[in-house]
Amino acid sequence: MARTAKFLALLMIPLVSSLIRFHANGAEQSDAEIAQAAFAIFSARCQKCHGPGESNSADMLLDREAMVGAKKVIPGKPDESVLYELARETDPAGRRMPPVGDPLKSEEIAVIKKWIERGAPNWEIPKADR
């Protein structure tokens, strides 16, 4: 299972990079594109500790409905969202996420903020659209 998670995280790096570049270029993104960009960041940077069955899952499971239901994300209000607060924290001795390794880049934090501002749209693609 750990090997699969590492493999998936490595696959996500190019996707995250391209989505961040797309965002940084100022191109207007659809809600689905922003949701996918946020999901790519969460998958690459947060899944190890906050994925299903991981040790910190109870605190903040990487599931849109769980984050909103637990009031970790307040759709439309990034400054009131715990997730955004933790993402932009700079003190590694404090509550910064991720707590080890490199902090989130400003571009990644901007994507998370935009995702929350847009109402935290779901990144799940309905089966009919696949």
Provide the fold topology:
Blueprint: H1 2-24, H2 31-45, H3 47-50, H4 64-69, H5 82-88, H6 106-117
Helix pairs in contact: 1-2, 2-6
Describe this structure in words.
- With 130 residues, the protein is mostly helical.
- It has one domain.
- Helices cover 52% and strands 0% of the residues.
- The chain is built from six helices and no strands.
- The chain has helices at 2-24, 31-45, 47-50, 64-69, 82-88, 106-117.
- Helix 2 packs across helix 6.
- The longest helix has 23 residues, at 2-24.
- The mean pLDDT is 79.
How many helices? The count is 6
Low-confidence stretches: none
* Structural Rg: 14 Å
Counting copies of identical and different chains, the oligomeric state is: single chain
Please bin the fraction of helical residues: 40-55%
Rough outline: globular
Report the portion of residues in β strands: under 5%
Number of discrete domains: 1
Largest sheet: none
Structural class: mainly alpha
Q: In angstroms, what separates the terminal alpha carbons? A: 25 Å
| String of helices and strands | HHHHHH
Mean pLDDT across all amino acids: 79
> What is the tally of beta strands?
0
State the main characteristics.
globular, mainly alpha, 6 helices, 130 residues
Concise account of the structure shown:
With 130 residues, the protein is mainly α. The chain contains six helices and no strands.
